[in-house]
Structure formats: C-alpha cells, structure tokens
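ok so heres the complex, three chains, lmk if somethin looks off
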Amino acid sequence: MKPSAPYLRRTLTRIYEKLLVRFGRQHWWPGETPFEVMVGAILTQNTAWRNASIAIERLKKADLLNSARLDRVPKSRLAKLIRSSGYFNQKAKRLKSFVRYFQKRYGGSVPQMRRIPLDPLRKELLSLPGIGPETADSILLYSLGKPIFVVDAYTRRILARHSLISWEASYEEIQALFQRNLLTWSPLFNEYHALLVALGKELCRTHPECHLCPLRSIGKLRLETSPAPIA
DNA sequence: GACCAGGCACATC
DNA sequence: GATGTGCATGGT
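and the predicted structre for the whole thing:
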C-alpha cells in the first residue's frame, strides 16, 4: 500500500523538523570552495569522510587543490597524495578525467558550469567515468547550488527502516520521493540530506533498534517489523 | 581481525 | 535487469 501524497509531505516535513531540532544546521558541504567540493565528492565515494578529508588536506598542502594544477599533475603522484581515501588508483583516474573535462569544457570556471541547466548538466556529469548518480548530484547540489536531492546509503537505510520506501527502491525513486513532496529549493535539499547523514552516523549504527531515534514518534512507523539488517 | 564507510564500473547470466 | 566482484584505506 503506497502512502498518499499528503501523508508523505507531512511526514517528510516532520522528519526534517525533528532532525533540525536534534542536530542543528549542518553547514554542508564541508569544503572551502566549490572546486574542493567537487574533488571531495569523488574522494568520499564508498569511504568515510574522515579519510577523504585527509586526502584533501594533503592536496591543499601540495598546492594542488586547483583544477589547472590538478590537470597537469601526474596520475601516479596524485594517487600517492590521495592514498588515505582508499581506492586511490581508481580515484586518481576519476579525478584526472573529471578535471580534464572541467578544464576543457568550462575553462575551470564554476560560474561557467553553473550556467548550464540542471538536467543537461546532470546528464553530462553522468557520462563521465566514475561519476554515478550520487557523485553527480552531490556536485550539482553542494558545489553548484542546483536544486536536486542527493540520495546515499544513509538515506535509503533511514527511509526504509521507517517504511517510507521499500528496501529495493531505486536511486531515482528515492530522489523523486523527496523532490515531489518537498519545496524545490536547494538550501532545503542541502540541509535535509546533511541531516539524514548526521542521523545515520550518530544513531543508526550505534542504536540500530532505534530506541533513541528522534524519528521514532513520527507517523505510522513500524520499526519493530522492519527488516533487521541495516547495512 | 572482522567489519564498515556519504559508489561505481564491468562481467556474467 | 539483476546479481556478483574488484577497488583499498583508516577507524572501531
């Protein structure tokens, strides 16, 4: 039985309010420049942010957190610098190809890139090697300020545990759930996703039974009967 | 020492 | 289209 639109709107709004009260504003993305956010989006793929941020610091220290210089640095040197983020050979390759594209297509200019409308730009990003839906949407939302909702492992886990989606829901289905039932506004999408991650990090792992979950009292939650695995 | 973390591509059926 | 596997580090 699919929840009705008014129910979803109400519930998604209540969840947001609860999370905001519990965790406060998250000030995402934790990066100093839009370009740093793009690099971070690739480095954090399937990796704890802590490890990705170590790699970012090393790039900064080497004065390489700049698209023109990153475009010129040898891939082997880049791989060594980003070692802490894991999958460093793959990520060095992905970063190089992304930066090549960014330089060639936009001259390394964020404002130039931002001029492209959301849909075609998303398609463009998805066509790059190593840029999947989450990385593309993270760049669009957190680096460029485009109104698109980022879905990640935490988002799926939390929504499924609270019976708002099935565990098998696709990326696009989950994204559409938020985008159809919330105001299309990038600051809201920004904060909402960051808050879901905050919840996922702080509670879902340490308290998988959800006894302390701030969302517990919301709507028709049926936590007792949701599937056990949270991974 | 096992398990996990803000994915993605590619092979195979 | 679904399912399985490689990629790899650092923290708990």
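quick notes: The radius of gyration of chain A is 19 Å. thats all i got rn
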